[in-house]
Write a structure and sequence with these properties.
Blueprint: H1 2-12, H2 17-25, E1 33-41, E2 52-55, H3 61-67, H4 75-82, E3 87-88, H5 89-95, H6 97-109, E4 116-122, E5 128-135, H7 139-174, H8 179-189, H9 194-201, H10 205-219, H11 224-233, H12 241-244
Antiparallel strand pairs: 1-2, 1-5, 3-4, 4-5
Helix pairs in contact: 1-7, 5-6, 8-9, 8-10, 8-11, 9-10, 10-11
Length: about 240
């Protein structure tokens, strides 16, 4: 119990996503798990390109999974994001035998077993997180201890998600960009030069360069390309209303 409390305390006080990743992959200190990941989307929409992930699954596992578009067809993940409670892989496989057979075969290629769970976390602001954990136990032990293990993981998942949202919010406050700085960076991210941005925004080129310079300073990067990338990572770039129309 004390170790579990220490884990939650550590999660709540993590100062960066690097520290959160260390705690995610360190779950084996508290539970009989081998592979653990936490995947995060800023919007509550499942997509093959998450905004952040901390994981110790085998190299190439997630990329292969996403490249084959398996995530959007995975009944375990779909069941998890639609609900609020942990989804056991074995139980989901029984409900969706055809899809599960393909996914288990894919997992086996990377040495990932069939006993595990996917645990969702939903934020009031719309963010979505899913913890995936593979256990190193047999089915008898799983049936005996699953409820307790999943209860602990569910609590940890909710705290990880809350801390990740908090870290993102802190970053956005520290790097708050004006509407015009965001507009200029968004267009720069599409490869446009200052002169083209000035035309699109009905501004002078000098004014555009001022906005881009101020954005670089706020984001603490050396050039506009890095600023656009950093702003996108922080979720600061708004969609182009004209493109969405």
């Amino acid at each position: 119990m004390r170790r579990a409390q220490a884990l939650i305390h550590g999660i709540d006080n993590a100062s960066s996503t690097v520290e959160l990743t260390d705690m995610i992959v360190g779950m084996a200190q508290f539970l009989p798990v081998r592979y653990t990941s936490f995947t995060y989307w800023r919007a509550a929409t499942l997509s093959p390109e998450p905004d952040w992930r901390g994981s110790n699954f085998p190299q190439g596992f997630h990329r292969s999974y996403e490249r084959e578009d398996a995530m959007l067809r995975n009944p375990v993940t779909v069941d998890a994001v639609r609900g609020m409670l942990p989804v056991e892989w074995l139980a989901a496989a029984k409900r969706h035998p055809d899809e599960a057979e393909k996914l288990l075969a894919h997992n086996a290629k990377f040495g990932v077993g069939a006993i595990g769970a996917s645990i969702p976390a939903h934020a009031r602001g719309g963010g979505l997180g899913v913890m995936n954990v593979e256990f190193q136990v047999d089915e008898a032990d799983w049936r005996k201890h699953a409820f307790v293990w999943l209860s602990r993981l569910h609590l940890a998942t909710l705290h990880i998600h809350a801390r990740l949202e908090s870290l993102e919010s802190d970053l956005k406050r520290r790097h708050r960009l004006s509407a015009r700085e965001i507009d200029a960076l968004r267009l720069a991210a599409h490869g446009k030069k200052a002169k083209e941005i000035a035309h699109d925004l009905s501004l002078s080129e000098q004014t555009v360069n001022f906005y881009l310079s101020r954005a670089r300073a706020k984001l603490r990067v050396a050039n506009t390309t890095e600023a656009a990338v950093r702003a996108a990572e922080l979720g600061l770039l708004r969609p182009d209303p004209a493109a969405a129309a």
